[in-house]
Amino acid sequence: MQEISKGANVSLTALSEDAGAVVVSLGWTSATGAGDADVSVLLLDENGKIRSENDFYFYNHPAAADGSVQLLGKTPTSNGDEDRISVDLTAVPEDVARIVVAASQYGGARFGDLDDLRMTVADRSGEPLVGYSIEDAGVETAFIFGELYRRGEEWKFRAVGQGYETGLAGLATDFGIEVLEDAEPTTGTEPTAAPEAASAAVPAPPTEEGGASDSAPAPEATTAATVTATPSATVPAQTRGRAPRTTKKKVTLPKVAKKSLAENDSWRTARLFPVPSLKSDKEREVRATSVLLSVMAEVPELGRRLTAGFGAPAGRMQTFTEVPLPHGDTPRRPDGVIRVERAGKLWTALVETKTHGNPLKDEQVQQYMDIAARRGYEAVITLSNDVALDGSPVVDVKIDGRRKHKVSLWHLSWAEVAHQAQMLIRHEGVGNAAHAWLLQELLEYLQHENSGCHGFQNMGPAWVPVRKGIEDETISPDDGRAVDVVESWERLIRQVCLRLGGELGQKALPVQRTRRDSDPRARRVAAASALRADGRLSAELRIDGTSSVIAVTADLRTGKVRTSVDVPAPEGSYPLAMVKRLLRALAEAPADLHVQSLLEGGNGPRGTLERLRPEPGDLLPKDGAAPTGFRLSLIKGMGSTRGNTESGFIRGVDAAVDRFYHGVVAHLGAVEARGGRRG
Fold first, then answer.
1. What is the per-residue pLDDT across 497-513, written as a single tens digit (0 to 9) for each?
2. Rounded to whole angstroms, how far apart are CA atoms 388 and 498?
3. Which of 318, 310, 374 is nearest to 346 (CA)?
């Protein structure tokens, strides 16, 4: 990769023969973990101005209709985030002379607060071509990182590094964009999320949670959308579950990856299911459906696991895509059909798929339910990035009780598919090596940023007005949208459990401290009332094999996510000795971990691990009282980006839980064993 300095330019065509499409990456790190910025792209004509409002791409307008520009969102790096933009130079209109890539911050944040500001350009294959680092950022709240521009028949890249103290509004004004100072949605207004409805006018600094420019967890803390296959978490299949003993060997992926034969790290492994060329939502849906259904048919373990809960028998499975079925004057084409045969009986289901955060449509699913009922199908299965909840349907359809043949409606999340695939190939095993390889290819496909199969991505239209109302303390005590936010929060926590459970090979589930037969709607209404009162979303989750309950609290007033766990004090130990034992167990934990002693009458002294390591006695009360336990907490800034796809909040919560588990909970085994299981 060629490094250039501010003001320099280079020909992309000269650097690669495959530069017809490029991926532009903007990266930064933050010492506090809370730093973030929103990317934006402007298409300019020869006069340096946008041709129309559609030439401005940002969090509420993430993609061009012709596929020339698409904001791909953030991906994790070893020490921060990287925001990626796909630019198909062959599809850029002829009257576009320059493509400006910029980023901006809100709420008083400045680029001088971020470290390692960097822009890179890679070709279609992912080979990095050119890189540029910004080293003089200060009080600027918006930055033009660089631009792609035409010179004859070729495209060139220039490192710009121009900052604006006036933010995105000042930057946008320079390129002919009208700035609307009062465009921010109020708490009583539903925000416009669809790209088609997005205006190029730049709103005053909003607080909308965002998709294309989201904060993401680091590789050790990936989202459920990007399911991490952690070799070190492999558990032999023979040690799990209640399956009968068998001499047939189960195949899991090896703990240590084979040494690569590639000449350098930039070489990309050939994949069975290629995905980089996907541009439209329709292409993503067709490809994702075909990939999944084909693997389900060829890997019986996966096909059985995904359909058993829907009433399908264990039998020979065949799958089909884009099947035309009669429906009035116009035949309908469900995305897929599943047929399972056992003992001469046939079980059938229609499949409707959505990717890239697109919602399922009630009317479309209703049509498939009617077709299934008339043709004798047993089920309709919907598959999308949404996560199903008890008592909260993903789609609203009517079941005709007069029909003799009843059709069941089921829902699968892409996060569940990835979870089950990972459980099989990393922990429980499959029948042979070919099946393991197919599942690995499926996971690689689901992980790819272009697949659109990234799990729960949208906190919903209620999120922005509710969060803003809580921040401004203007939310109404009877604002019903808080219930919708609580539902989205529950979906997010379930997805976090799926991702963490798939990585560890253990079941991870939310903890519900209510009666099992309680009304889910009533529980959410009560949680919404608490949210309006104190501005906090709270949840607990437990992982099989541990006695720890991980508490997760998102404080919308402070913009912080707190993850914590209570550790009981070992019985029969001297106070100072048990504090030292706890600190030894946390030798590899993050230095910013908060440790607080718990007393019979309340809370005791507290401090960060960094401060307590040299002075463990500071954790003990001055009056000599013995602690009954310790509370360990990590605090992380919530995502503050805006948009209509995967939000910084969603990825921030997932990253916080992952960091807390691996950095803290995973080291508490010896302490928990000594402390026993109390209350």
1. 888 888 888 778 888 76
2. 12
3. 318
What's the CA gap between 225 and 422, in Å, rounded? Answer: 13
CB burial class (10 A; 0-12, 13-18, 19+) of residue 661? buried
First-to-final CA distance of the chain: 58
| CA pair distance 296, 405, nearest whole angstrom | 26
The residues with which 603 forms a beta bridge, in sequence order, are 598
* Helical pair 463-472 and 520-534, crossing angle rounded to 10 deg: 40
pLDDT value for 485 = 93
**Nearest-5° Cα angle at 538, 532 to 544:** 160
Question: Chain-wide mean pLDDT for the chain?
Answer: 79
Other beta carbons within 10 angstroms of residue 576's beta carbon come to 12
At 558-592, the pLDDT tens digits run 889 999 999 888 776 788 888 888 888 888 899 99
Rounded to an integer, what distance in angstroms lies between the CA atom of residue 580 and that of residue 585?
9
The dihedral sign for the CA sequence 671, 673, 674, 678: positive
Distance CA 288, CA 364 (A): 19
Instruction: Give the residue among 202, 199, 206, 204 at the shortest CA–CA distance from 182.
Output: 204
Collapsed DSSP state (helix, strand, coil) of residue 162: strand
Q: What tokens appear for 394 in the block?
A: 């993903």
Q: State which residues of the chain have pLDDT below 50.
A: 33, 78, 182-248, 641-646, 673-679
Q: What is the spatial distance between Cα 296 and Cα 315, in angstroms, rounded to a whole number?
A: 12
**50, 95 contact by CB (below 8 A):** no
β-bridge partners, 42: 56, 100
| Amino acid symbol at 183 | A
CA-wise closest residue to 531 among 603, 587, 601, 479 = 479
- Give me the residue label for tokens 């925001």: 83
Query: What type of residue is 224?
Result: A
Tokens at 551, concatenated: 């508490």
Could you tell me if 20 and 89 are in contact, meaning their C-beta atoms sit under 8 angstroms apart?
A: yes
Q: Residues in the chain, how many? A: 679
- Dist CA 224 CA 234 (whole Å): 18
- Which residues partner with 413 through β-bridges? 384
- Of 431, 429, 533, residue with least CA distance to 477: 533
Exposed/middle/buried for residue 385 (C-beta within 10 Å: 0-12, 13-18, 19+): buried
Crossing angle for the helix pair 281-298 and 433-447, to the nearest 10 degrees: 160
Helices 414-422 and 300-307: crossing angle in degrees, nearest 10, is 140
Structure tokens belonging to residue 513: 């401290």
Structure tokens at 422: 């990972």
Label each residue of 527-591 as H, E or C: HHHHHHHHCEEEEEEEECCCCCEEEEEEECCCCEEEEEEEEECCCCCCHHHHHHHHHHHCCCCCC
Q: Which amino acid is at 96?
A: V
